[in-house]
């Protein structure tokens, strides 16, 4: 065999081997995936520094009295912390300090607590923030004997009882008669100035004034009743607080001269009631 033929055969053999290797590599490569048209979502976790901020645990309306259960510490992005927020790092005792405050501007659940939205006890405007819209705060003098021996506390419900005297005409002539009448029912107690005192040898909470939440005309009635006779407060059961949808009821007829006896004067004839006027 001539050298030229031998060279040609070797080149042809090498080309055949190369072609076989190329076909094998192409068959071993994965087939390209078809595009389904759905966007590919890439999730990246980014670590953000946070701090504990004091927030409202639930929605709170204007006038709500805040308790420790109304607050909670919540994670808040450190870069978004406002200078007016209470943080656990700088104000660890904030819950105890703010308990007993009144909501001045409505709060939403999870909203950070700021000074501008609450009024703390002793601050100007505390009582005004505690009042519901359209209501008035009026105080009445009390004693342990006229206020359930000191067991009445703020946010309790009470009845206001008036004891007074009227003059009636009998067969022997005019005489004084004592009347007792419930003039206001289901009134809310806003505050009571309680101090520790002693009654019958035992230590009790006593006070000299109670502040009630009443409608304007009901407040007038309470002031008028205080001039007519002695005022007593009767503590109501918690189960009765929603009676009449929680509304306060008042016998405002006293303001127009109704004595509580139907504007009648008793007249006795021959030992029995003979009529009235």
Sequence-ordered SSE layout with sheet pairings:
Blueprint: H1 3-28, E1 50-56, E2 71-77, H2 94-98, E3 102-103, E4 118-119, H3 126-130, E5 136-141, E6 157-170, E7 173-199, E8 202-214, H4 216-228, E9 230-235, E10 249-250, E11 267-269, E12 272-275
Antiparallel strand pairs: 1-2, 3-4, 5-8, 6-7, 6-9, 7-8, 7-10, 11-12
Shape: rod-shaped
**Rg, Å, rounded:** 42 Å
Would you tell me the structural class of the helices and strands?
alpha+beta
Number of helices: 4
Order of helices and strands: HEEHEEHEEEEHEEEE
Share of residues in helices: 10-25%
Total tally of structural domains: 2
Beta-strand residue percentage: 25-35%
Distance between the termini: 157 Å
As residue ranges, the low-confidence spans are: 262-277
Task: Report the mean per-residue pLDDT as an integer.
Answer: 78
Largest sheet: 6 strands, antiparallel
Number of E-state strands: 12
Q: Care to give the gist of this entry?
A:
This is Flp pilus assembly protein CpaB. This protein is an alpha+beta fold.
């Amino acid at each position: 065999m001539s050298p030229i033929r031998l060279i040609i055969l070797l080149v042809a053999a090498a080309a055949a081997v190369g072609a076989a290797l190329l076909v094998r590599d192409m068959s071993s490569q994965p087939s390209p995936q078809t595009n389904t048209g759905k966007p590919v979502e890439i999730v990246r976790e980014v670590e953000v520094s946070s701090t504990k901020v004091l927030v409202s645990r639930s929605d709170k309306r204007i006038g709500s009295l805040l308790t420790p259960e109304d607050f909670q510490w919540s994670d808040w992005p450190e870069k978004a912390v406002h200078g007016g927020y209470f943080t656990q790092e700088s104000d660890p005792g904030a819950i105890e300090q703010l308990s007993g405050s009144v909501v001045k501007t409505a709060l939403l659940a999870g909203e950070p607590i700021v000074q501008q939205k609450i009024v703390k006890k002793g601050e100007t405007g505390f009582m005004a923030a505690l009042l519901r819209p359209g209501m008035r705060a009026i105080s009445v003098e009390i004693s342990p004997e006229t206020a359930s021996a000191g067991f009445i506390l703020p946010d309790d419900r009470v009845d206001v009882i008036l004891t007074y005297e009227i003059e009636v005409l009998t067969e022997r002539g005019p005489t004084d008669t004592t009347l007792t009448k419930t003039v206001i029912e289901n009134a809310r107690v806003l505050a009571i100035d309680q101090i520790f005192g002693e009654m019958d040898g035992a230590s009790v909470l006593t006070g000299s004034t109670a502040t009630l939440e009443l409608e304007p005309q009901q407040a007038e009635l309470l002031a008028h009743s205080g001039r007519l006779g002695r005022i007593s407060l009767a503590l109501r059961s918690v189960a009765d607080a929603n009676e009449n949808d929680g509304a306060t009821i008042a016998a405002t007829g006293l303001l127009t001269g109704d004595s509580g006896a139907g504007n009648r004067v008793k007249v006795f004839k021959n030992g029995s009631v003979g009529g009235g006027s």
